[in-house]
Amino acid sequence: MSCQDMKHQWEKYKNGTLTDKEAETLEQHTENCEACSAHLEHLLTEDEPLSPTPSASSLSDDTMLDNKKVKRSIYMAKWKQRLSNVTTVISSVVLLWIVGSFLSIVYYHQSKTEYINSVNQAAIESAFPNVHIRETTSDTQSFFRMQSQMEAYKQIGREEQAIGTFTFHQLFDKTSGVEKEFSGGKYDLNLSFVYPDPKKLKQHAQEYKEWTNETWNALENLPKGTVSEVAISFDDTYSLKEVQQKMNAIDSHDFSTSWYALNTGNEQRTSTKNEPLIDLTSTFGFPEFLDLPYEHKGNQTHSTSKSNVLNMMKLLADNEETVQKVRQLDHSDLLLKQRYSYVKKHGVGVYGVVITGPTKKLLKLKNDPSITYASLGDVELWNWFNRPSSGTLMNQ
């Protein structure tokens, strides 16, 4: 029946003269019609009680009782309609969430997840000297969202120290946000570099000498039972192979090289600003073992190669927005595509490194004529030995 056909039934309902069959018909119609259900709710919530008509007043007690049952039945129909609507909404939301979760799992397949995590890892390791990612956990969420947590460490001596957690929020392929939670609430940027620009080296020669002597003096005054972290800058840009050979020639058992400062062709921009040091937020580099998930399967056991660095720079150039959120720099300062093109054309040039090892052994570099500047990072108690067994308990 249509709502128009039920119109006269509502009059009988108001007068309390519905028969059982008519009440059943009205109840069924109300359950399936939102308009009539709303009309019924309006009738049931009216403040003024229904005035019995003469015909209703003359009804027998049994008839009045039947009419009360009819009203109760229709009242229940109204609540059934409400419950049905609520159930439909909840079911739709749950179904939508399940479908959204399934689509996210399909979208963030293994290869895509590895690519995104490689971009995030490269953005961190290229920006923070002597920092590398050791642990990554990814959580796929509904509606094409994913959250990745990366545990960042730095090497001091032969031990790795946790410096904090980077949390990346993805929406499709876009990085919607990056949260940084450093251990102790902060991270000190004490390592700095000098670009081997002849003009600048001559202009600030005295400053570089004084600052470098302060670093060597600090190492001399530190106790013997300590390990330190030092960033050194060279007098020129050398190839990756030349730097690796140079470091190994000194004595690889006395210290280890953990990070390389990469010449991307834009470091000289700071020269025009009369700044003696490269801006800490615009230094680019790579760790000794550059192991990006998208490029390698498992842990890399060999030192970083030229192709590794080129792949890293391409990842950065193709994902500038992620790099911006990690470094908090504008596009005009990043110039990632220009940097990538420069490295691709001129090769992997290194103008500085971060080394770590026994404090007194690092002093072997003090008289190296190719070192123009040195800065001291973190210092820890002696750990330059191999532990037969070790482990870590995490918070729960």
From TrEMBL:
Keyword Transcription regulation on entry: no
Superkingdom, taxonomy of origin: Bacteria
UniProt keyword list: Membrane, Transmembrane, Transmembrane helix
Pfam families, per database record: Sigma_reg_C (PF13791), Sigma_reg_N (PF13800)
Domain Sigma factor regulator C-terminal as annotated: residue spans: 219-378
Residue span(s) of domain Sigma factor regulator N-terminal: 74-160
InterPro entries documented for this protein: Sigma_reg_C_dom, Sigma_reg_N
Membrane-spanning ranges: 86-108
Entry keyword annotation includes Transmembrane helix: yes
Name of the protein described by the UniProt record: Sigma-M negative effector
Species this protein is from: Priestia megaterium
